[in-house]
């Protein structure tokens, strides 16, 4: 029984390394990767070097930074036909950016995280760069993750809150009582509001996209500076998000009915 456990541990470590690298589009050093994963520096370097040898990681030796490698691109291209659901959301993301002037996004749920899949810039010249394609946040952090978390089943929400420890990295505004309050507010409004909790002055709003079974699986969101998300404008932005979220959900359900193998 010892060998399978060691193998499972290795797979888990590789997964954590790849996720850490994916969260840094400009690359990260081995020391930063060790800090992000909690591994020792020798272990981190051995994993990075082994993955680089297989093409899953790319090492820029001149800058001392590690990036996702070409083999992942090839594998991702092969998997896209089965899992890519961005086509159903792309038009709504573009229209949201055009109609509001803000940066618009489409994110998917992956376990206890959200991953940004699409970004479209609006016309307003001052932007927030907290969210980008490939960015990951825990559920309850950022407006997309809050929107999805708020509409999970009550038992699932409680299980997540009991195991989540978000305060150390994301601050006291992400304590369990604070999250419970924002979940309740999101359910009452129908859409989520992030009042600069990740980066001061950078606000966001999000709406849940439900799958064919009625479960929260994706989210549309908008981000921008605080002055663009004042209380008097929030209902307008919220309604736009809800309308487009409904449209995306309908399109995804139609693809599934037509036999498309799309799923988050």
Description:
- With 264 residues, the chain is α+β, with helices and mostly antiparallel strands.
- It has 2 domains: 2-73, Winged helix-like DNA-binding domain superfamily/Winged helix DNA-binding domain (Arc Repressor Mutant, subunit A, Orthogonal Bundle); 84-257, GAF domain (Beta-Lactamase), CATH 3.30.450.
- It has helices spanning 2-22, 30-37, 41-53, 70-83, 87-100, 142-150, 154-163, 167-170, 176-189, 234-257, and strands at 57-60, 65-68, 103-110, 113-120, 136-138, 192-194, 202-210, 216-225.
- The protein has a 6-stranded antiparallel beta sheet, with helices on both faces. It has a two-stranded antiparallel ribbon with strand order 1-2.
- A hairpin with a 4-residue loop joins strand 1 and strand 2 (65-68).
- The model is unreliable at 1-5 (pLDDT under 50).
- This is IclR family transcriptional regulator.
- Pfam families: HTH_IclR (PF09339), IclR_C (PF01614).
- Residues 8-70 form the HTH iclR-type domain.
- Keywords: DNA-binding, Transcription, Transcription regulation.
Number of strands: 8
* C-alpha geometry: globular
Helix-and-strand structural type: alpha+beta
Q: What would you say the CATH architecture of the largest domain is?
A: 2-Layer Sandwich
CATH topology of the largest domain: Beta-Lactamase
Main β sheet profile: 6 strands, antiparallel
Percentage of residues in strands = 15-25%
Mean pLDDT: 88
> H/E series, N to C?
HHHEEHHEEEHHHHEEEH
> Order of strands in the sheet with the most strands?
5-4-3-8-7-6
The number of helices is 10
State the name of the first-level CATH class of the largest domain.
Alpha Beta
> What's the number of structural domains?
2
Keywords: DNA-binding, Transcription, Transcription regulation
GO molecular function, one term: DNA binding
Domain HTH iclR-type: 8-70
InterPro entries: GAF-like_dom_sf (IPR029016), HTH_MetabolicPath_Reg (IPR050707), Tscrpt_reg_IclR_C (IPR014757), Tscrpt_reg_IclR_N (IPR005471), WH-like_DNA-bd_sf (IPR036388), WH_DNA-bd_sf (IPR036390)
């Amino acid at each position: 029984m010892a060998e399978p456990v060691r193998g499972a541990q290795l797979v888990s470590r590789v997964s954590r390394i790849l996720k850490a690298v994916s969260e840094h589009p400009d690359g990260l050093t081995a020391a930063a990767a060790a800090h992000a994963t909690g591994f020792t520096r020798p272990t981190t370097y051995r994993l990075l070097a082994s993955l680089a040898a297989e093409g899953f990681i790319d090492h820029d030796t001149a800058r001392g930074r590690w990036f996702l490698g070409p083999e992942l691109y090839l594998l991702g291209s092969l998997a896209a036909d089965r899992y890519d659901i961005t086509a159903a959301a792309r038009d709504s993301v573009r229209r949201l950016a055009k109609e509001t002037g803000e940066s618009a996004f489409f994110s998917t749920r992956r376990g206890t995280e959200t991953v940004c899949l699409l970004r479209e810039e609006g016309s307003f010249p001052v932007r927030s760069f907290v969210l980008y394609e490939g960015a990951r946040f825990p559920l309850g952090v950022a407006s997309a993750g809050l929107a999805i978390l708020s509409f999970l089943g009550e038992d699932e929400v409680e299980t997540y809150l009991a195991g989540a420890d978000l305060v150390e990295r994301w601050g006291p505004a992400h304590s369990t009582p604070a999250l419970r309050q924002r979940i309740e507010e999101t359910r009452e409004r129908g859409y989520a509001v992030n009042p600069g909790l990740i980066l001061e002055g950078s606000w966001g709003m999000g709406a849940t996209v439900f799958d064919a079974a009625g479960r929260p699986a994706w989210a549309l969101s908008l981000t921008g500076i605080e002055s663009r998300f004042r209380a008097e404008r929030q209902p307008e932005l919220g309604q736009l998000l809800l309308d487009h979220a409904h449209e995306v959900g309908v399109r995804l359900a139609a693809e599934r009915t037509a036999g498309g193998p799309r799923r988050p």
